[in-house]
Every structure is written in structure tokens, then in C-alpha cells.
Write a structure and sequence with these properties.
Length: about 425
């Protein structure tokens, strides 16, 4: 019969969700205002609404299907992703609006702010991809709330202390989410991970759904990278879209080639294709403001795909055995390593175009400080979150119930047979 986890969900998940949602409703009721001065012929609506649609599809459909690859975790992979995304976005609206509330008494909401808020939620989705299957939905909600809070704080510090532009500060989400999740999975480590969980496997049907999510992300990634490029600079926005597309195309081809070369039987690996075809988009997104030529984007995509595919093939198991970090969705290779590569490419491209040695040194120091601040804050928030969620009060799932939908969802037709 199905595992009896209803008391855990009833006494912890439902009160937590209702409490958070009521708090959000009260805050929105007293302190938010939809921006009404939208120009009919301006860029606010006609520019940002298509971007909002594309980013929304990525957040809810792309990541949802991508995380549904375990054979008995499809409901949880897609359903919990949806739940985390909507809660994280609502919180991000409030946190990102604190500055406007301080000056005007109201949290201003418009299409651009919602795009930024959904991008902040993506940082939480990256983190839960590392710990999914080994946590319950209460854990995921708490992780998302703390992770988004930390990321918004990091974005504010980068813009305030280091004067980092909004697109550059937002694209730190790949590094922030990856390191946050790795620290978290290290603190929540289970010895069963070394033998692989009984249900941590995929089949043809779930693998196809996961590939659909990856392709969905691949299609809409140019919108994700170009959404916050300044509206007035139409050439830069087009350049961002084209550069991202070219990097994604090159990374898809390169990932397929490296997958075949690294396979003992010389065959393609679906997991490599799911994870590594996105590497070029991640790397170019981090270095977007410095990429000027198509060949630069293609070179970044080529290198990112090689690093990502090799990481998925060899690094995941070594991270587990050497550092006790069980990365469920190989997020380190999909987001972490390509984003670090993009950071290096951004630095090199800026130095290439800089003729003044003094300015080059200053920019290098500034760029390194940006990375160090992101790393320090992500690791700190990951440790704080790990200390909170590792408590038995939240009733973590037993090892034999990890990656199992029946722990959280109703399956009347399977209750007797399984």
C-alpha cells in the first residue's frame, strides 16, 4: 500500500503554504501598486510582454519537464517545480520592490519587474535541481524562500557596492544557485547516495519528457539572456539574441560529438544531450555584455559544451565520492562550470578591448570582487539553509522513499499493485 505520509503534508506543508500566501496577500494589499504610466507606443508592454511569456514558459514548462526524468518522480519533479516557482516569484516581487517602497511607500509592479522576479526564481529552481528527490515539498519551499532572499540581497549588493549593471547582476544566478545547492546537498548528505537510490533512474518515457523540457529551455534561452538588455539599444538586444542562439547551436553539436567520443560504445547519451545543450546559453548569458562578434559567442558555446559534457560524464561521480555532494541533475556541469567559463570569457573580452592598462587592472579587480562576493554570499546562505532544513522536524523522506511520487501524491490505481 502507499506510504502514509499524509500527516507530514497535512501538519506542515498546508499550514506553511497558507501562512506564506496570506502574508503575501496582506503585503500586496497594502504596499503594492501596478505601474500605470505605460506608454502606448513605448517599449514597456510591447517589449517586455513577449519576454515575460518566454521566461514564464522556461520557468514552468522547461524546468518542470526537465526535472521529471526519474521513473517514479514525474509528478513531483514537475509539480514541485511549479509550486516552488510561483512562491519564489511572489517573494521576489516583494524583495525587489523594497527599494521603491523605501522611497515612495509602494512596491511598484510592472512587466519588467515581473521578468526580473521570475529570473530570481530561476536561481531557486537551479538549487532544487541539486537536492530534488531527497527532500520533501516543505524543504523545497523553505529552500526557495531563503535562496531567493539571498540572491536578491546579492544582486542589490553588486549594484550598490560595485555598480554592476542589472543584466550582469541577474546572470550571477547560475553561479549563486549552483554553489547554494552544492553546499545544501553536502549538508543533507545521505550514505545511500553512494549506492544510488533505488528509484533514482529513468526510462524511455520519462527521458523523453525530460528531453522535451531541455529543448523548451533551449528554444527560449535567447529571450532569457536578452530580456534585460536596454530597450533603447535595439542593436544590442538583437546582438544578444543572435549570440545566444549561435552559442546554443554550437553547444548542441559539440555536446553530441563529445558524448559519442566519451562513450565506451561510441553512442549518444540522452543525459548528456539534456544537460549540455544548454551550456552555451549559460556561458554567453554571463558574458553577454562583452560579446561583440558571432565567432566569440560560438567559441564560448563550443568550450562550454566540452566542459559541461565532460563534467556530466566524470565529475558527478567524483563530487559524490570525494566531497559527498550528490548532485541529482548534474547542475554543476549544466550551470556551474559554464557560468564560471562565461565569467572568465567576460573578463578576457573586456581586457581585449581595453587599451588603458590602469583601467584594465581596475576592471580585473572589480570583476574578481563580483565573483568573490557572489561565492561568499551563496555559500553562507547555503549553510544557513542547510542548518534549518536538516532538522527532523520537517520529516525528511526515508532513503527507500526518495524519488517516489507515492510519498506525496495520490495513486489510487497503484495502491494495491505497488
Amino acid at each position: 500500500m502507499a506510504p502514509r505520509y499524509a500527516p507530514s503534508l497535512r501538519s506542515r506543508l498546508a499550514p506553511l503554504l497558507l501562512l506564506l500566501q496570506l502574508v503575501f496577500i496582506l503585503i500586496y494589499g497594502f504596499y503594492t501598486e501596478v505601474k500605470s504610466n505605460v506608454k502606448v507606443r513605448g517599449d514597456n508592454f510591447f517589449c517586455f510582454y513577449p519576454n515575460l511569456q518566454d521566461v514564464t514558459v522556461m520557468v514552468f514548462l522547461g524546468f518542470g519537464f526537465l526535472y521529471s526524468f526519474p521513473v517514479r518522480y514525474g509528478f513531483s519533479g514537475s509539480g514541485f517545480n511549479f509550486l516552488v516557482a510561483v512562491m519564489a516569484t511572489q517573494l521576489a516581487v516583494i524583495l525587489n520592490g523594497i527599494e521603491s517602497w523605501y522611497y515612495s511607500g509602494k512596491i511598484i509592479i510592472d512587466l519588467k519587474s515581473i521578468v526580473v522576479d521570475e529570473m530570481c526564481a530561476v536561481s531557486a529552481l537551479i538549487s532544487i535541481g541539486i537536492v530534488m528527490g531527497k527532500t520533501n515539498p516543505v524543504h523545497l519551499i523553505l529552500i526557495a524562500m531563503l535562496e531567493v532572499s539571498g540572491f536578491v540581497l546579492n544582486k542589490w549588493l553588486l549594484r550598490t557596492l560595485l555598480r554592476v549593471q542589472l543584466p550582469n547582476s541577474i546572470m550571477q544566478l547560475h553561479i549563486f544557485g549552483t554553489l547554494f545547492g552544492l553546499v545544501l546537498t553536502w549538508m543533507l548528505y545521505r550514505t545511500e547516495s553512494e549506492r544510488q537510490f533505488e528509484k533514482e533512474k529513468s526510462d524511455c518515457k520519462m527521458g523523453l519528457f525530460s528531453m522535451l523540457g531541455s529543448i523548451c529551455l533551449w528554444i527560449f534561452w535567447p529571450s532569457f539572456n536578452s530580456a534585460l538588455v536596454k530597450d533603447g539599444a535595439l542593436g544590442r538586444k538583437l546582438q544578444a539574441v543572435c549570440s545566444t542562439y549561435l552559442a546554443l547551436a554550437v553547444s548542441a553539436v559539440t555536446a553530441a560529438a563529445v558524448s559519442v567520443l566519451s562513450s565506451p560504445r561510441g553512442k549518444l547519451n540522452l543525459i548528456h544531450m539534456q544537460s549540455c545543450i544548454l551550456a552555451g546559453g549559460v556561458a554567453v548569458g554571463v558574458s553577454m555584455t562583452a560579446v561583440r562578434q558571432p565567432w566569440e559567442a560560438m567559441a564560448i558555446g563550443f568550450t562550454a559544451a566540452i566542459v559541461s559534457t565532460i563534467g556530466v560524464r566524470y565529475l558527478k561521480i567524483h563530487m559524490l565520492l570525494a566531497f559527498q555532494c550528490h548532485d541529482t541533475c548534474a547542475v554543476l556541469s549544466t550551470h556551474g562550470l559554464p557560468s564560471l567559463l562565461g565569467w572568465v570569457a567576460h573578463l578576457l573580452l573586456q581586457l581585449k578591448d581595453c587599451a588603458d592598462h590602469t583601467m584594465a587592472i581596475r576592471f580585473t579587480v572589480f570583476h574578481i570582487c563580483t565573483l568573490l562576493l557572489t561565492i561568499a554570499l551563496s555559500l553562507s546562505m547555503g549553510i544557513i539553509t542547510g542548518l534549518l532544513v536538516k532538522s527532523n522536524f520537517w520529516r525528511p523522506p526515508q532513503d527507500k522513499k526518495c524519488f517516489d511520487d507515492q510519498a506525496y501524491w495520490e495513486f489510487p490505481h497503484l495502491a494495491v499493485r505497488k
